[in-house]
Amino acid sequence: MKHWTEPNGILLIQIPIDWQYLNPAFKGEEEISPYSFQPYDESIGCFQLSCYPLEELAPKVANANPEGIKKLEWRESNLEDSEFCTRLYHGALGDQALIGKYIHDTKLKNDPRIEEQLKIVRTILNTVVIVPQTDRKLAADLDKSDRFHASLAASHDLLFSAIESESYIEIIAIAANQIDAYLRLSIVIAKQIKAQTNDIDVKYFFQADGEWGIMERKIYEHAKEFGIIDDEKFDELNALYQLRNRVIHRYVISNIKTRDLVDIATRYLKSLESTRLILASFENKQANEDYGVYGKVLGKNQNDTSAIQRLHAGANDKHLLQRFKRKISHKKT
Question: What dotted CATH number matches 2-131?
Fold first, then answer.
């Protein structure tokens, strides 16, 4: 199983590692409930989960339980029309009213696979944990951190593919992305070490559509400010940045030759490796502490096979392309 966190940190659930979270897959759609899930392969239905403040959906229940609902119990019912069958689940826990659904084609009503899927749905529903209000920001930030790491893992698939096909412009673009990511992660760790905190400065991990975010050269400045890179590395990164922009934006209108791309790509890969080693030094430094993304409390065991499979599942969610898809079995975790 792998955990899924509601985008606002309100609740956590465990879903099969070979199931996909669908909401972010729809371009331009806001990530709001109902939150939808289904298997990567051979899906015959869709599971949805929604959460609402208990005081809005059931004010009398909320008033009768000022400290929240202590025990989760699900009420199950069915809806059916000419096209779809919907298995409904209503419950409440903590300060949240919960609604689960499993929707499938009416033609599959008597298909034994549906009952197998419903067993999985019931298992998922019984894993719901409502996060205390004081911890919801941390839960949401940790989720953004997990997505950041999954995206970074997915970028390595793109880089290896570009190297294999000798796609030099793609190598340059992806390596620049990864250097930026390594520095962002190093900055977050450095700030946690300095403050001795679990708090994540999530602005380094996530940039929503329409947000300016922190630009690449600002990341270089921040990394230098926190002592992550020295003057020599700072100058190297800025020089590569200028070359990268020339390649990406002015290849056609400049005197740069395709042969030059080989040298630039090679320089980027060398810089990428040295930046990775800088990150590794900060990861190792924090690994002995009780706080932070790599600390003893929040950190993950590098030898944990299930953690690696969850990372692979996250990379699958990032790609959403068959070409890069890893086969993952929930039975192994």
Answer: 3.40.1000
